[in-house]
């Protein structure tokens, strides 16, 4: 079985609620966070299958059309691919918040589905996110978890905390983290 990294999108890969953009509703509103493209290339070349798992409730609420979301993801994947960074698949929950679905994080549905279809060993995999629902989804799926934050968030119990995806990629691809995990 393969090991994977499941990446949240907004706040991990791209800017959201910044001075440049509040929400991403079009490709021209999609801005990669610093060094994210390098980090994704490093991770995809470092022996991991990479997946994006993102809640996009704006579709379910009618603020964003499915075609707009597809355009945003096509833009993201094209930009990453042009640098040799590979995302295997983008999984999206488009249900409105509180709809009770099994795919919306903190539920583990997207991770479990990807794991089953792609032969992923969840216990050897990581969920990387910037909010509690991301970390809970990873835990619910049986993954190790990484919080992207300048400091631990109260009540959020991630296995590891890094300020950005680049720092997390250094940890994940370098051999030094194996001593932290006892391997």
From TrEMBL:
Give the Gene3D superfamilies listed for this entry: HAD superfamily/HAD-like
Site for Stabilizes the phosphoryl group, residues: 54, 105
Specify which residues bind Zn(2+) according to the UniProt entry for this protein. Answer: 93, 95, 101, 103
Q: Mind telling me which residues the site (Contributes to substrate recognition) is annotated on?
A: 104
Q: Tell me where it resides.
A: Cytoplasm
Q: Name the family the entry cites.
A: Belongs to the gmhB family.
User: Which protein, by its recorded name, is this?
Assistant: D,D-heptose 1,7-bisphosphate phosphatase
